[in-house]
Specification:
Structural class: alpha+beta
CATH topology: Alpha-Beta Plaits
Strand order of the largest sheet: 2-3-1-4
Largest sheet: 4 strands, antiparallel
CATH architecture: 2-Layer Sandwich
Mean pLDDT: 93
Distance between the termini: 39 Å
């Protein structure tokens, strides 16, 4: 019997100003392979990504870029 162990990785997204921004970022990151959930805090820009295993930061960055935003450096 195998357990489903998820991984949560946090990112900071810059430039979001409204719920539409949150929806765009959530939708794009949700399409990254292995991602099971996305939680966005508009006030802080914190994005928590829950995935089946380690998520590729480059794939998340590309998804955020596709939504019209950028990951904060660092």
């Amino acid at each position: 019997m195998s357990e489903n162990i998820s991984t949560t990785t946090n990112f900071t997204v810059t430039g979001m100003t409204c719920q539409h921004c949150v929806m765009s970022v959530t939708e794009e990151i949700s399409e990254v392979p292995g991602v099971r959930g996305v939680d966005v805090d508009l006030d802080t820009g914190l994005v928590s990504v829950t995935s089946d295993g380690p998520v590729d930061p480059a794939a998340v960055a590309a998804a955020v870029d596709e939504a019209g935003f950028a990951l904060a450096a660092g």
